[in-house]
Design brief:
With 180 residues, the chain is of the alpha+beta class. Helices cover 16% and strands 39% of the residues. The protein has three helices and eleven strands; from the N terminus they run E-H-E-E-E-E-H-E-H-E-E-E-E-E. It has a five-stranded antiparallel sheet with strand order 10-9-8-7-11, with no helix packed on it. The chain has a four-stranded antiparallel sheet with strand order 2-5-1-6, covered by helices on one side. Strands 3-4 form a two-stranded antiparallel sheet.
């Protein structure tokens, strides 16, 4: 089986069991020799800075890791009866997200928007360059790059619309360098 047939699915778990389900799922996939069918398992997290006031009234700041989607685990797998059975029978797993017992894979846009996978985009333009918008409602409009942030996957382009300069925020892949 190839990686191209594998899609991301969302699995519902008991609250607090996300890491246990993810670990058990990868172990079971290895034990059953299904690594080429169950490719990856993720529990998306983020680091949050929290201010805590202790009993003495003193304030301390600490960084804490939070689950972005508590109660859910993301599984990249090739959907078959066998992989469905393996996932459904992991302790702490309550089922797939989808109608009935049939899981619905995430779309590519959902995968990136939800932070399950990061997409690396090679950018051939920089601030001050003229670019053409190649996707979205402003497709084929031309503008000048005002701000570029590869870490956050966005570019701000100044486009002339209705006689005014208007800033438009796009994903990096939605613009291409305008060839002279």
């Amino acid at each position: 089986m190839s990686d191209y047939e594998a899609k991301w699915y969302v699995v519902h778990t008991y609250s607090g069991y996300e890491n246990k389900v993810a670990g058990d799922l990868m172990t079971t996939a290895e034990n059953r020799n299904l690594q080429d069918m169950i490719i990856d398992v993720k529990v998306p997290t983020e680091i949050v800075t929290e201010k805590v006031i202790n009993k003495k009234g003193e304030e301390t700041v600490k960084e804490v890791e939070h689950k972005i989607y508590p109660g859910y685990v993301f599984v990249k797998m090739v959907y078959t009866d066998e992989t469905w059975y393996v996932v459904r029978n992991i302790r702490g797993c309550t089922g797939f997200v989808g109608p009935g017992s049939k899981p619905v894979p995430l779309t590519e846009a959902e995968v990136y928007r939800m932070g399950v996978e990061q997409r690396s985009v090679k950018v051939s333009y920089s601030v001050g360059d003229s670019v053409r918008i190649i996707d979205g409602p402003l497709e084929d409009c031309v503008g000048v790059v005002d701000e570029l942030n590869t870490d956050e996957n966005y570019v701000r382009v100044i486009v002339s619309m209705f006689g005014r300069e208007t800033p438009v925020e796009l994903e990096l892949a939605q613009a291409e360098l305008l060839e002279d």
